[in-house]
């Protein structure tokens, strides 16, 4: 990505939020999808599988899963099956992290610009955001697909969110639960607050070291960015 766009831009503060595991208490949905999906094929989920795929985008996960388990499915077939299994959960079961909705309203009242930077495809993120009542609170919603199909190991999705908001990276605060995403956002000068989530438990010690702050729910979040 060409980073030159942000030179000289400074139009206010912005907050950029991950969805899965940060705003949404949803990572358990994917754990169950993995268990049920592989269980249909007589495969037990390996201990390292969920960690391996946590930072990948949707198609990468499908390709990795096919290669790892020698499946005959195409990536499109896997993604369609996962979509079918997850769509109901995201639109009816998933809830917001504690105090997340109130915090978003607080930031909007403060004048901060808000964006989502997620790996979730629209078919899952839109129903989930509507279900928990945050669908209309963001100025921009971007995904890794919008940022060249690269995973959150690269800062591109966060930079794209900042670009669309018209705010320089230095004036962005990112809320993220994945270590790779935290490191990526930090690498381009963004402030990062880490959300504690079971999916990142193995990385929590390092997350605490590299983040600017840590949260166990949004009652701990900074009122001023």
From TrEMBL:
Superkingdom of the organism of origin: Bacteria
InterPro entries reported for this sequence: HAD-like_sf (IPR036412), HAD-SF_hydro_IA (IPR006439), HAD_sf (IPR023214), PGP-like_dom2 (IPR023198)
Transmembrane spans: none
Molecular-function annotations in GO: 2-deoxyglucose-6-phosphatase activity
Keywords assigned by UniProt, alphabetized: Hydrolase
SUPFAM superfamilies linked: HAD-like (SSF56784)
Enzyme Commission code(s) on record: 3.1.3.23, 3.1.3.68
One Pfam family named in its UniProt record: Hydrolase
Name assigned to this protein: Haloacid dehalogenase
């Amino acid at each position: 990505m060409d980073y030159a766009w942000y030179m000289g831009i400074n139009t206010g503060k912005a907050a950029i939020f991950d969805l899965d595991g940060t705003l949404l208490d949803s990572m358990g949905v994917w754990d169950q999808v993995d268990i049920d999906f592989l269980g249909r094929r007589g495969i037990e989920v390996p201990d390292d599988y969920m960690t391996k795929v946590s930072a990948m985008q949707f198609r990468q996960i499908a390709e990795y899963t096919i290669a790892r388990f020698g499946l005959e499915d195409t990536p499109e077939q896997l993604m369609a099956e996962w979509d079918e299994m997850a769509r109901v959960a995201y639109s009816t079961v998933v809830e917001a992290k504690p105090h997340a909705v109130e915090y978003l309203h607080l930031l909007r009242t403060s004048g901060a610009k808000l964006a989502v930077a997620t790996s979730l495809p629209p078919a899952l993120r839109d129903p989930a955001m509507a279900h928990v009542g945050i669908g209309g609170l963001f100025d921009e919603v971007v995904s890794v697909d919008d940022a060249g199909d690269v995973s959150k190991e690269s800062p591109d999705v966060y930079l794209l969110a900042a670009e669309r908001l018209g705010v320089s990276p230095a004036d962005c605060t990112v809320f993220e639960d994945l270590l790779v995403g935290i490191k990526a956002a930090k690498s381009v000068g963004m402030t990062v607050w880490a959300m504690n989530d079971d999916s990142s438990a193995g990385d929590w010690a390092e997350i605490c070291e590299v983040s600017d702050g840590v949260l166990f729910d949004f009652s701990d979040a900074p009122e001023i960015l």
